[in-house]
Amino acid sequence: MSEFDSEMFSSGAQVAGFHLEAGQRNFMEVSRIIATELDSDLFTLRPYLRAWFNGARDALEDFGIDVSGASTTEEVAAAMGCFSMWAGKPPVTDQGIEAPAAQEQPQPSEFGGANG
After folding, report:
1. I need a labelling partner for 35 at 20 to 30 A (CA). Which of 5, 8, 101, 104 fits?
2. Which parts of this chain are annotated as the region Disordered (predicted)?
C-alpha cells in the first residue's frame, strides 16, 4: 500500500464537499466525479474515498446544510465492500443511465468530404 498523501486527502475532501453541497448524494457517483476531477482512477483513490464522502457529508450537516438523501455511513461501507464490482463501470448520467464510453470521432477526410 502506498503512503498517505495529505495533499491528495485535502484535494479530495474539497471536491467531495463541493459536489455534496451542490446536490450530488450518491457515494459511488461522487467517487467517480472525484476521480475524474483529480485525474486519477478509483483504484488508486480507494483508501481515501470513504473518508472523503463521510467527512464531507458530516461536516456539511454540522454546518446546518441539508444532506438528506446522501448515502449513509452504512451504504458507503456496503459500497466499499463490493468496490471492484462498481469501480470500473462508467459514470451514470442524471437520468440514471450509464453514460456511453467516449468514442473517437471520424475526421471529415475519412468520408471523402470537401477536403478528401
Report:
1. 104
2. 91-116
Cell 459514470, located at residue: 91
31 CB-contact burial (10 Å; exposed 0-12 / middle 13-18 / buried 19+): buried
Could you give the CA distance from residue 14 to residue 58 in angstroms, rounded to a whole number?
A: 13
The C-alpha cell that represents 34 in the structure block: 472525484
Structure-block grid coordinates of residue 45: 483513490
- What is the rounded CA–CA span in Å between residue 105 and residue 85? 30
> How far apart are alpha carbons 32 and 42 in whole angstroms?
7
- Cβ–Cβ < 8 Å for 27, 79: yes
The answer to whether the CB of 33 falls within 8 A of the CB of 91 is: yes
